[in-house]
């Protein structure tokens, strides 16, 4: 589903990714762990097409297509979803309007019929109930005045509605208490299946107790330094990155 | 009269040629004197430092056509409306029984600066007609429409309507004013409003200015608000080559309130200037101002806003925000918010921001699958929402939304 | 901090209510004839033994000034100044530079003592060579040495630590000395930031400036101590027109302080200074002012008219200039320390506290011109009005079309104490660059009753409570001052507000 080969990327002339290889087959959840500054967030932004990152080499294919040639919205329409580490506030944009516009834009690009307001509300309400989100969150501005936990839940709600084939979770666990962490993890686990893959980027092993990965990769200095099964995460927790990745 | 030294010579000559019935005499005299003194100011005059009115002084304007045009009018939205075509009041097209402006004679030129500030003086010197809306105490007049249309064949006319709105104690009215005209014609629309709000009365005034792209729009609104009264203004400024919107409000009795909001949508070849002057002249009054500017092409936006708090105006609560969004490399925004405060028990603040669309927000929307164009439109809409949200009347709100959408489609195309 | 304690004690000891620096020094003075004309300009230039080019420069400025009109746009009111009714040159009679303390006029010494300049430095200040110049002396009491240039009326009477600074290649001297010893530097930079025709008061200064400080920090040098100029107006009916020029060469750093006082007189005296700063690539200048000219009495009689032009050119890439001012004195303050941000990535800062009490009027602020790419500026202004004081912030932020990525943040807060004063905010914001971001916030408020009550319930007097709250209000600015100055400035704020409560 996702294949990254020899990816190099820089920001403001500083090289961050230095030849990264990674393959995520359909239906699998992969975790990426690594110390600060290893390039974890850069990877998630490069994959989702944020401006300001210069791709200097390598390739990324997604469902067999050249991902790097696509605009951010095309990537979203072809099934890639990024759950932001710091979800952006959009004052003046209602959450419901935003979600429906996004959902319909993606459905349109996929050739699916658009949902009308009633259909959308029904769908959104049922998803929100699953995530224990109060309904008034639909009326508020996108992420405006949301607590840290509410923002992350809003990310997972969007994911549940947009139904991606690949979700990138960029430190979704940061700033979450244990209850919120459980709800968010359940949201992700509910999507798991043969057509859904995830790339879970995290500092800590904790999240991986709830979202159990098929593979764990250690990202150090812009490259995958080591890969293994889920037990690798425990090893990292016990011995630190320096020792494991050495 | 040393009229001939002023750059407003042509206007002054026209004023001299006008028939001057007694009821308008005092106003005209004041206007002519003030205009002869100040002329149409250039940027050396502080209040016009960002907006030069010399092009208006230099432009040549013709008389209104004798034959009455019969333009197609939009559907009536309010309870009643008054229609001006090519600057002429048309009783035949209006559903509001006209009240002669001469009935308003004792009020003319009485609201602060309404005969002497340059834009108002130009009107005072040349006004011949206008709407007089006189709402008796306790009456709710509902939604009244004021429509001004310049027709294709009118040519570069200049017209100077003076509108007077008087609300008795506890009365209320909602005014929806629309101004339209053809592109490519250098006509001048120079309306002045004098609004007198008695105790406990409420006037909500929405203006949608969509004059033609070649037009000059020089407007001045003067409101006087008594104790417990409210004057709300929302101005959507989307048309004209050069638009100056002045609003002078005086809060003259305790617990009077004023909300002045607006949006300026400025494109290629346009200059839009909003200048507000809020005089807190009584204690316990509140004022709120939110102005948003969106600039494209080489459009230039200007916001000047002054809040003056007199020494008696203790416990004043004043707030003003102006924000501008630059959407192109060639756009320019100049802002001069101002506080002048002589009372100590006050809470006054203003804020200003100027910047481009937030790249983070844009990327966030796009990463959710919303195409760039739609994402931009959504953010511009959201930017304007804060100001537009202040408009409570649903008909006015719908008209505003439609006008904003129309403008955006024109820009995005 | 012995210096601070001593200063405060001195301040308190000379306190006789109101302004504590208002004494007069009885000392033999030399004056130029009263009035202003070309001959006076020539007299000053001759007195200073200036080269021909400088005299020509002065005369040109004088010709420009004669054609100019006094500006009237500021929110200050004062009777017309008669420029012919003042002395333009006054200097203490001093034969040669004194070699020891005994040679210095004792009256001059007493003046410095009364002004609260610490004893050790007092000896230095009076121009005694050798004193306090060893690092061990300087480190005494655990504080950094401060090199001082003292300007008494029209002339610089002493500059300290010169030898020590010279070892680093730093030039710190009176500008009249710089004209003699470093003419090439003076000629290159004088008037390059504030030209003769800049404004009425600057033109006047160009014609008749008598002294001031000159600083040059060579490439890569971090100035090892604070540099300071202490301005004192003493003589009657004199104007003071000092001129300061600071050049920070590539990669250098300097922190400069300026303080000023004047005797209490019931006439108004004019002070029209010009300060020019030049920062080249990677250079950084921090310029701090505690302005405490005589403000006039409670009825508004007397006091200094302070019309000052201060401007910095951030010419180099990544250069930085930071202005910090605490304005408590003067009857009228008219002053806008500004930054021209030419170099890419250059930074301008303006931190200001201005207090107007009694009949004082202040119209002060800054201008930030963003020309280079990624230039950044920060403006924090705190205005406090009490009594019948009028306080105006006036500022300009201009972003040019090529200043891509420029940023400005402005915060202007006003505090009103009493119902007869005024607080005004007049910012101009002009942006022609899409990628620039400008933010401006302003608030006006008074000290809340509950704040006052809370403090008083805890045992503070009303004046102490006001002082405390005002200091809190100004904290963001005061923390930018060098430490020794900050404590003095806090004290000064309190003294300036005396009598404003109740």
TrEMBL record, chain A:
Pfam families: ABC_tran (PF00005). InterPro entries: AAA+_ATPase, ABC_transporter-like_ATP-bd, ABC_transporter-like_CS, FeS-cluster_ATPase_SufC, P-loop_NTPase. Transmembrane segments: none annotated. Keywords: ATP-binding, Nucleotide-binding. GO terms for molecular function: ATP binding; ATP hydrolysis activity. Residues 2-246 form the ABC transporter domain. SMART domains: AAA. Belongs to the ABC transporter superfamily. Ycf16 family. This is Fe-S cluster assembly ATPase SufC. It comes from Rhodovarius crocodyli. The lineage of its organism: Bacteria, Pseudomonadati, Pseudomonadota, Alphaproteobacteria, Acetobacterales.
UniProtKB/TrEMBL annotation, chain C:
Residues 167-223 form the SUF system FeS cluster assembly SufBD N-terminal domain. SUPFAM superfamilies: Stabilizer of iron transporter SufD. One of its GO terms (biological process) is iron-sulfur cluster assembly. Transmembrane segments: none annotated. It holds the Pfam family SufBD_N. It comes from the Bacteria. InterPro entries: Fe-S_cluster_assembly_SufBD, SUF_FeS_clus_asmbl_SufB, SUF_FeS_clus_asmbl_SufBD_core, SUF_FeS_clus_asmbl_SufBD_sf, SufBD_N. Residues 231-473 form the SUF system FeS cluster assembly SufBD core domain. Belongs to the iron-sulfur cluster assembly SufBD family. This is Fe-S cluster assembly protein SufB. It comes from Rhodovarius crocodyli. The gene is sufB.
